[in-house]
Design brief:
The protein is mainly α. It is built from 11 helices and no strands. Helix 3 packs antiparallel against helix 4 and helix 3 packs parallel to helix 6.
């Protein structure tokens, strides 16, 4: 059994730590989410390990609750985008014909519009709720998953084992879920990590622009926006959530790369055997 590379091990530890903090946020945070406990932008101290924010709230507590919101929205929107994009992509590849052409042209149309601008336009006219945010992010990101899953499924659809299933009289849903999906997991797992990272960055950008997570809820992108004015005074309150966003993105990327390399090696080993 191969040892886990150092980079992947660091990524696993950091990712597990982020998810642990997100799950147990109410028990780990020393203060409440909106509780004002000190003066504005107090420096780091024993009482406030990360200092306070622009309203005098404990920054560590806000970071912990922000991790919960950021990761929850990113996980749910990624799950939605993968469920929707992969099912439609596989279906388009297997069914073909007018359905494939219609879906592909519709996806091309959506992808021609910059995602951030499209998201801002949609969210500006919809209610500002977490459910709306998750649905909008998931649907917009499903276009990327659709393109990948369709491309993989088109190649698999002409393989001998798929043709044999069709000759046995298996239905389209059997072909999609029992024949194509298990053999498409390798590229999809790698893309899953990248889509999660994109969801975190997309959410942070929306919150920074004021159309993401709304107060009094906290997320890391919104915390950067709230404390950005302190940067000119040398106050690092905005840099801490920005560093957390970067650390989460890097750690998940390290894990995704390791999983992709491992699955590729396993497939290569079976092929050589």
């Amino acid at each position: 059994m191969k040892r886990i590379p150092l980079g992947a091990l660091i990524g696993l530890i950091l990712t597990a730590l982020f998810f642990f903090v997100a799950i147990f946020a109410p028990w780990l945070a020393p203060y409440g989410l909106g509780e004002i406990v000190g003066d504005v932008w107090e420096p780091m101290s024993d009482k406030f390990p990360l200092g306070t924010d622009n309203l005098g709230r404990d920054l560590l507590s806000r970071m912990i609750f922000g991790a919960r919101t950021t990761i929850l929205i990113a996980v749910l929107s990624t799950a939605l985008s993968f469920s929707l994009g992969s099912i439609l992509g596989f279906t388009a590849a297997v069914v073909g014909g007018w359905f494939d052409m219609l879906m592909s042209r519709f996806v091309d149309l959506l992808m021609a519009i910059p995602t951030l601008i499209f998201g801002l336009v949609i969210l500006s006219v919809l209610p500002s709720t977490l459910a709306t945010l998750i649905i909008v992010m998931g649907v917009l990101d499903a276009t990327r998953v659709y393109r990948l899953s369709r491309a993989v499924a088109v190649d698999l659809n002409v393989m001998d084992f798929v043709e044999a299933a069709k000759l046995r009289g298996e239905g389209k849903w059997w072909v999609i879920f029992a024949e194509i999906l298990p053999n498409a997991l390798s590229p999809l797992v790698s893309e899953l990590g990248l889509r999660f990272i994109y969801a975190v960055l997309f959410l942070s950008a929306l919150s920074f622009l004021g159309l993401g997570v709304q107060p009094p809820d906290a997320d890391w992108g919104g915390m950067v926006k709230e404390n950005k004015d302190g940067i000119v005074f040398g106050i690092p309150a905005a840099l801490i959530p920005a560093a957390a966003i970067a650390a989460l993105a890097i750690s998940v990327n390290l894990v995704a790369d390791w999983v992709l390399n491992r699955t590729t090696d396993l497939k290569g080993g079976r092929g050589n055997g």
